[in-house]
Specification:
Strands 1-2-3 form a 3-stranded parallel β-sheet, with helices on one face. It is globular, with a radius of gyration of 12 Å. It contains 2 helices and 3 strands. The chain has 61 residues and is an alpha/beta fold. Helix 2 links the parallel strand 2 and strand 3.
């Protein structure tokens, strides 16, 4: 609930995550790609994942 509230009340929304989380398959979700502006990560994901994110309007930093 806290994460959803933070996203709902923020003007700019960025996720901070490790590269490994791009490939973590879990059923818990608190946001969709169109809910966030960008992802700050330690390393770029593979090309296919990056293309999906860019096509959804998500910037990878």
């Amino acid at each position: 609930m806290t994460k959803k509230a933070a996203i709902a009340s923020s003007r700019h929304k960025y996720l901070v995550m490790e590269k490994d989380k791009f490939y973590f398959n879990d059923s818990y979700k608190f946001a969709h790609f169109d809910d966030i502006d960008g992802i700050i990560t330690d390393s770029m994901p593979d090309e296919a994942t990056a293309k999906k994110l860019y096509s959804a309007g998500v910037t990878i930093i």
